[in-house]
Amino acid sequence: MGETETANKTLPLEDLHKAAGARFGAFAGWSMPITYPTGVLKEHLHTRSHAGLFDISHMRLFDVKGPGAAAFLSRLCPLDAGALSPSQSKYTFLLAEDAGIIDDLIVTRLAEERFIVVANAGNAAEDEAHMRRFLGDFDCTLEPLDRVFLAIQGPETEAALAKAGIDGGNLAFMHGMEPRPGWFMSRSGYTGEDGFEIALLERDARQLVERLLADERVQWIGLAARDSLRLESGLCLHGQDIDKATDPVAAGLMWAIAKPLREKGGFIGGQALAKKVAAGASEKRVGLKPEGRQPVRAGTPLFAEDGTPAGRVTSGGFGPSAGHPVAMGYVKTALAQPGTRLTAEVRGAKVPVTVSSLPFTPHRYRKG
Amino acid sequence: MATTYFTEDHEWLSVENGVATVGITDYAQEQLGDLVFVELPEKGRSLAKGETAVVVESVKAASDVYAPVNGEITDVNEALSGEPALVNTSPRENGWLWKMKLSDEGQLSGLLDEAAYKKLVG
Asked: Are A68 and A138 in contact (CB under 8 A)?
């Protein structure tokens, strides 16, 4: 989130964020609310104990429909889309031929021949171009949706939504539906908490936001806390923790790919992935707990106890709920065991770091 | 009686008897957000104007605080090791960063006074 980054896209609800006193910054080409006057620490803690409202309209939704929709997604992603039950969501990827991660996605089946794909802001254009390259081989359409996209996260979310007139009680974690025309709502999120993501038309969004914010349990939360929440929860940020140079094996994300698919393939990148599974990863993504109070940031080199290079930090900061600095990164497979002691080199000083299991803060999803 | 100066990098210096107490301004702490760590320098270190003296870390990022003038560090605010948030809650008082003995008081004339600084940050 460097200051040199330029942002030429503004959120449809930007006026509301300005009125709430947000400080803006550039992220993935968008001018985004980074913090509100409450500040990142309190915003983070508020989400873990109440309900945080995030504007994630920079993310992209695609509507995939037609008789060939399931086959299309099963070709593009390491996913058996036809095996999803209606309303079921799945975390998956767009892989390159070499199994590098083009993007990570959430795919939800809404009906027999209809799916919603949620993609990252920074990759949306590339994702769309990539998907369109294969669209002609399948009997389906791909339509980007023009929506406001809100995430409401935290233990009091279901109650706050109910008070605002939206019943999410019947929705289990990683399931989605269309509660009203033009709406898409799923029980999911990227904070480690129970929560919902709702895509809706702008006028509906304004009404919903007003109702939600009238409830003292609900507060706007900026991108800075979104980042510390996801990092504490051990969730990957594409472009940092995963990218085209990493693959699901090294990233420790094979749980997202059903076993038969790993061997059978049938999706783009399948052959390369099967080879990587057979060969084993030379490095692995791990949690890293720095000793003391000093955060260890992305890009920091890591060394083994004997001084040889061990890997690198890909995300790092302070975990307000954990109460200590938190980080994740890639280390040589031999050094990936939790408890392994490493050294991070921060501005010439050596900071002791321990390989730690993820997440740092336990997930509290509402399983069905 | 101490005289307070400001820099375009959003630091303040309170100078008395050739010793400057240095901190960051309220505007700067607000821009940085909640601090979680302050990397303090060692006492006795000589600093040249523009050199990084302190690194302040917010939840999200690390930022350098530069020496506004030449001098030698005589004291650092140890309280920040336990409570870095003092910089947020009291940037001009309890959240001071370090004290330095000035080696060239002439450099002070190149700094801003409070009125000029206020104009800078609007």
From this structure: yes
What pLDDT is attached to residue A8? 87
CATH topology of domain A282-368: Elongation Factor Tu (Ef-tu); domain 3 (2.40.30)
Coil, strand or helix at A246: coil
- Helix, strand, coil abundance in chain A, percent, nearest 5: 25, 35, 40
* Best CA proximity match to A134, nearest among A200, A91, A183, A72: A72
Residue B72 confidence (pLDDT) above 70: yes
Residues 6 or more apart whose CB falls under 8 angstroms from that of A229 comprise A44, A47, A48, A153, A190, A191, A192, A193
Could you tell me the fold of the domain covering A9-57+147-232? Gyrase A; domain 2 (3.30.1360)
- Run means of pLDDT, 10 residues per run, chain A, 368 residues: 67 98 95 96 98 98 98 98 97 98 98 98 97 97 98 98 94 96 96 98 98 98 98 98 97 96 94 95 97 96 97 97 97 98 95 97 86
Determine whether the interchain pair B60/A294 forms a contact, defined as Cβ–Cβ distance below 8 Å.
Answer: no
Q: Do B33 and A40 touch (CB under 8 A)?
A: yes
By CB atoms closer than 10 A (0-12, 13-18, 19+), residue A294 is buried
Q: Which of B38, B60, B78, B87 to mutate to test the interface with A (most CBs of A within 10 A)?
A: B60
B64: nearest CA partner in chain A? A347
Q: Quote the ipTM score.
A: 0.87
pLDDT attached to residue A7: 75
